[in-house]
Structures are given as structure tokens and as C-alpha cells.
Amino acid sequence: MPDLSDKTPEQPKRVLLAAPRGYCAGVDRAVIAVEKALDLHGAPVYVRKEIVHNKYVVETLSDRGAIFVDETDDVPEGKLVVFSAHGVSPAVVAAAKARNLQTIDATCPLVTKVHKEAVRFADDDYDILLIGHAGHEEVEGTAGEAPAHIQIVNSPDEVAGVTVRDPDKVVWISQTTLSVDETMETVRRLRERFPTLQDPPSDDICYATQNRQVAVKKFAPDCDLVIVVGSKNSSNSVRLVEVALHAGARASYLIDYAKEIDEAWLDGVRTVGVTSGASVPEILVQDVLAYLADRGYGTVEEVRTATEDLMFSLPQELRADLKKAGIAEPRPKRGPRAELAVEAL
User: What cofactor is needed (predicted)?
Assistant: First the structure.
């Protein structure tokens, strides 16, 4: 009879669930803004670009009567348009005014902070190096605040091609949804070229982006597979896949829905890490957990690295409309929030 005493027992299947994950305060605010605009004004409510980068959210709001357009020219004159959480340039605001559009600005207050930094540094005649992805709505909006002063740096590899007027009068700012590690590497290389490079007054990469990356870094080394719930055009969600792989996960995939999981990914997998981008509602994560539970991954261990309690007041224009209608401002409803609302900057 064979001796089985040296056989190592098979490890149980489990899920490591990142916390925090999913909706951030800026996304929560933007989505509620469209929902409340629909409640107050009825359909259609126009939204410039996707209100947030998530397929499910856009489809759900479309079903309620939101119409997503590429530019303000696509909105009938005099109608209501919501600006997305990613922010817009002054040129977009002017174009909306020229068409007599009613506007609700759902720009995330943390993006607004970066816009104000850009304006302030441009007023002081700095060359501004905007670390971010060219073509992303947030980057286009920020660059539009001071186009004569801003140049975009997409990655560390582009640093060698940066030229400035005065090497002693250069500052960097960044898109809010970047990889923290890659951004710091870009800054390091920029500082090698421009030793007096100034930092922004405070960190531009948003708290939610950083928190989600930290949580993934913590559990990725223990994971055979990390599933990131998020859309392909969501910068912070894409970064989570990259962070998971760099931190030691054997494989990582980005999905919008549980049905997109390929069962072959689970072959030989004992530990699955699960997280979601900052524009992802929790219902989509729960669908993934249910899918995994049906396949033997019933043990779920939460890996918490931070507790988020920040919330933002709704856009000023919407708060005024709610007040006129005698409707109390709704509180954010997706995830833990503090009792104190933070006014938009």
C-alpha cells in the first residue's frame, strides 16, 4: 500500500477581497447628479462624454433617459447638459454658453483642484509638465486650462524629449488616476533633467486611486489570479491590473461583468484576488463573488488597507434646483461615508 503520509493537503479555495474598492466620492457624486437631474427635469438629460468610465453605469443611466454625447454641439440649444466627473476645459464651458445650454458641472473636486493648480502656475509663467495619458478626458480638460504652458508627458520614456523655456521654472502636475509607482518614476527622471523641478502643493493622484493600488499590492503576492472589475476605458481600473502583476500575482484580468470570466483562468487556482475600479458599483463585485462561490471559492477574506469616509456635496447648480423644488439633498448611498459633507473646492 502506498505511503501517503508525505502528501501535502490541498489548500482550500479562497477569495481575497480588496477593501477599499469600487465607487469613490467623486464618482458617487457624479452618478447621483445625473440621477437627480433626471428626477428633477425628466428625460432626456444630456451628458458630455461618459459621466464615469463604466459600461454598466452608462447603460443604466441611458435606460433612464440620459443621452451621452461627444461634444456640446451635439446637445440641442437651450437644453440641459451635465459635464462628466473627468472635467472640461474653459473652451467647452464657453461652447456650452454660446449654445445657451443649462449646465451641471459634475467634475470631481479633486480634478478641479488640479485645474486650479494649472491656472495658478500658468499665471506665474511656469512650464507645466502634465503627467498623464494624452487623449484621456481628464487630461484634455486640465491641459485646456493653460494650453500655452502645459505639455503632456505620457510615461517615463518620454522624459528625454521634454523641452522647457527655463529649467529653473518648471513644475509637474498629474492626472488623478495614474499608477503611483510609474508617476513617481516619471518625476524621478524629470528631476534628473530639471533639478529644481517643483512639486504640486499636494498629491494630485487621488486618494481612491492610491488606496485601491495599495490594497492590491498587499494581497497580489498571495494570489494565483487577480480579477479587476472595471471597464477598459477606466484608467484607474487598467492600472490595477498592472499593479497586481507587478506586485506578484500570477495572472490578472479586467472584466466588466462576471459572465466575462473564462473558466480556464481558474485551472489550478487556489487563491483569487478581487477588486474593482473607482467607477464600479458594488453589485458587479457581488456578481463576481457569486460566480466564484458557485465554483468552490466560497471562503472570502477581506483585505483592508484603508477606510474611506470622504464625501462631496452635489454640484452647486443641482443643489440650487433641489432647493427650489423643496427636495432635500440626497446623501451618497454607495459605500461608507462620513457624516460631514465636504464642499466642492
Answer: [4Fe-4S] cluster
